[in-house]
Amino acid sequence: MSIDVFLTSIYGALGQGLLHALVAIGIFLNLRVMRKPDLTVEGSFAFGGAIAMTMLAGGSHFAVVLMIAPLGGAAAGMVTGLIHTKLKIDGIISGLLVTMALFSINLFVMGSSNISAPLDTFVNTPIRLWLVGLGMQPFNALLTSYIIVGVIVVALVITALYFLFRTEFGLSIRATGSNEYMARSNGINTDSRKIFVLVLSNAIIALSGALVVQQQSGASVHSGAGILVIGLAALVIGEVITPKKANMLIKLLFVVAGAFIYFSIISVVIISGLMSTDATRLLAAALTLIALCIPKIKQLWKDRRAYGRT
Amino acid sequence: MVELKNISQTFDNGIERNVALKTTNLTIGDGEFVSIIGGNGAGKSTLMNIINGNLRPTTGSVVIDGVDITRRTRHQRANMIACVFQDPNTGVCPDLTVAENLAIAYNRGRRRGLKLALPKKNLDFFRERLAEYDLGLDTCLRRPAGLLSGGMRQVVTLLMATLQKPNLLLLDEHTSALDPKIAKQVMEITNRLVREMGITTIMISHNLTDAITYGDRMWMMQGGEVTMDVSGESKSSLTPAKLIARFEK
Predict the structure, then answer these.
(1) Residue B117: its chain A contacts at CB < 8 A?
(2) What is the pLDDT of residues A32-42, one digit of tens each?
(3) ipTM topping 0.95
C-alpha cells in the first residue's frame, strides 16, 4: 500500500468518523448519561436517512432536510420513551419494537428499498464547488467538503450539549441517570427526563443518518443495520483514550476521536486488502470487544502489581 | 402541620392480605420533632412511604399545611417533603460532585430551566453552609459525592434536605449505617438543623436512647399501629430499659 493510498483512506475516515460520531454521541447520552441502553438507534438512523433522501429527491433544499430529519428521529425516540415510561415496558424491548416498526415506515417513506437523489442537491455541494473553484481536485474536494460539513455539525451539537448539561435542567438529567431515587426525592420528574434524552439522542442519530446517506449518495432500507455496533465501537474506543478527569466537553470530543480512529482502522484494513468489505462487521465487533476489555485488563494488571508477584 | 387522616395500608396479592398499617389518625404540630420506634414489621416504614409518596394508602389522606397531597406522586410532593434514608447511597448522586448534588437539592420542587446550574453565588453559599460543620466538607465541593465516606454523605444529604426549609423532614434510620461515633455526630447535626430552622420532623430510629434524647414526642409502633404516644415530661423520664419492657408487653 502506497503512502498516498494510506493518507487518502485516513482522510476519508475523517469525514466518515465525523458524521458517524453523532451516532456515538447519541449512544453516549443513553448509555453513559442515562445508563440505559437504547435500541431505537438503528431505526432512527435509517429513518433520518430515508426522510432526507426522499425529501432531496423531491426537490427540498438540504437546509430544510437537515431540520426535518432530526424531527423524525425525535418522534421515534418519543415513542420509545412513552412505551417505556408510560406503559412500563422494558427499555430494550421498547426500542426493539420501534426499530421494527420503523423498518416498514422507512420502506413506506422511500417507496422502494433503495433511493437516491441528484448529487448536486446534497449538503456538501456549496462547499465542494467552492473548493473546486479554489483549484482542488474534484475527488479531494468531495472528501474535504464532508469533513467541513462534519466539523460544523459536530461542533454545533457538542456545543449545544455542553451548555445544556451546565443548566439546571441538564443537571436534573444527569441526576436521573446517576440516582433515579434521589432525583425523584428532589422533585425531578424522572420519566420526563428519560423521554427527553431518548428524543434528543434519536434526533441526533437521525441527523447523522441524514448526513451519511448523502455521503454515501443514496439511502437504503438497510442503512441502519449495524450502526449500533459502529457507534458503540466509536464510543468505547474514545473512552479508552479519554483522560480520567474529563468534563462533559472533553468526553464528547474523545467520542468523536473514537469514531475517527474506528473508521481509520476499518478503511486501512479494507484498502490494504487484509479483509474484504464483508468482514468489517466482524472487525467492528472485535474492536468493540477489545476496547471494552482494555480498562479491565489495565485493572487486572494494576491488581497484579499491587498484590501478585511478591 | 401534618395531618394523617384515617390512613391505612393493606397489601393484597390476591392470595394473602397483609395489613401493614391499621387505620391511623395522627397530627403533628408545626416545628414538632417526632421520633418513631418499633420492631421490624411494625409499620414504621409503611407510614414513612405513605407520607413521602412511595406508597398510596389504601384508605385515608395525607394533609400537609392544609394541602391534601394524597394523590401526588413522589416527585410532585418533593417541594414539601425532604427525606434522608438509612443507606448513604440513596441520598446523593455518587458521580455528581458535592456542589452539583447540593444544586439539585437547592431547586427541590422548583422548575428546572435553562439557567446555569452552578452560578458562583450558589457555590459560595454552599461552601459557607458546609463550612459550618468543621468536617472539612467545604473543601470537597468539587469532588464526586461517591468518594465521601458514608457519614459525610449523610451530612451532605441532611444539608441537601434543609437547604430550603421543607414543610416536613423525614429521617428513616439515617444514622444506623454509620459507626457509633459518626452516628452521634450526625445526630447532633440533625438536631441542630431541625431546631435552628424549626423544621417539622419525623425520625425513625433503632436507637432507643436517640429516640428518647431527641425530639419532642415519641411514637412506639407495634403490629401496624401506634401503641404509645408520649411527649414532654413523660417522654424525658423514659429509659431504654422501660421502653424494652413496653415492647415486650
Answers:
(1) 166-168, 170-171
(2) 999 999 999 99
(3) no
| Set of chain A residues whose Cβ sits within 8 Å of the Cβ of B148 | none
Give the model confidence (pLDDT) of B77-94 as tens digits. 999 999 999 999 999 999
A171 touches chain B (CB under 8 A): yes
Give ∠ CA B204-B210-B211 in degrees, rounded to 5: 50
- Separation CA B148–CA B137 (nearest Å): 9
Check: CB of residue A40 under 8 Å from CB of residue A95.
Answer: yes
- Angle of helix A227-241 relative to helix A248-271, nearest 10 degrees? 120
- Nearest-by-Cβ selection for B103 from A171, A185, A187: A171
Report the candidate in A277, A272, A263, A191 with the shortest Cα–Cα distance to residue A13.
A263
Of B92, B109, B114, the CB nearest to A187: B109
**Is A217 in CB contact (< 8 Å) with chain B?**
no
A298 close contact with B: CB closer than 8 A: no
Which member of A168, A169, A182 has the closest CB to residue B93?
A182
Candidates B54, B73, B75: best to mutate against A (most CBs of A within 10 A) is B75
Is the CB of residue B93 less than 8 Å from the CB of residue B101?
yes
Instruction: Return the C-alpha cell found at A289.
Output: 470487544
* B89, B105, B115: residue with CB nearest A186: B105
Taking Cα atoms as reference points, which of B180, B215, B213, B211 lies closest to residue B194? B215
Q: Above 60 in pLDDT, residue A309?
A: no
Tell me the residues of chain A between 178 and 197 that have a Cβ less than 8 Å away from chain B.
178-179, 181-190
Check residues A244 and A117 and name the one with the higher pLDDT: A117
Q: How far apart are CA A65 and CA A61, in angstroms?
A: 6
Asked if B32 contacts B202 with a C-beta cutoff of 8 angstroms, the reply is: no
Contact A189 B114 (CB under 8 A): no
Mean pLDDT of chain B: 92
User: What is the tens place of the pLDDT at every residue in A113-167?
Assistant: 999 999 999 999 999 999 999 999 999 999 999 999 999 999 999 999 999 999 9
What is each CA distance from A263 to A56, A257, A268, in whole angstroms? Answer: 27, 10, 8
- The mean of the pLDDT values for chain A is 93
Inter-chain touch A183–B105, beta carbons under 8 Å: no
* A226 interfaces chain B, CB cutoff of 8 Å: no
- Which residue pairs from A105-114 have beta carbons closer than 8 angstroms and sit at least 24 positions apart in sequence? A105/A47, A106/A43, A106/A46, A106/A47, A106/A50, A106/A221, A107/A221, A109/A47, A109/A50, A109/A51, A109/A54, A110/A50, A110/A53, A110/A54, A110/A219, A110/A221, A111/A54, A113/A220, A113/A221, A113/A222, A114/A218, A114/A219, A114/A220, A114/A221
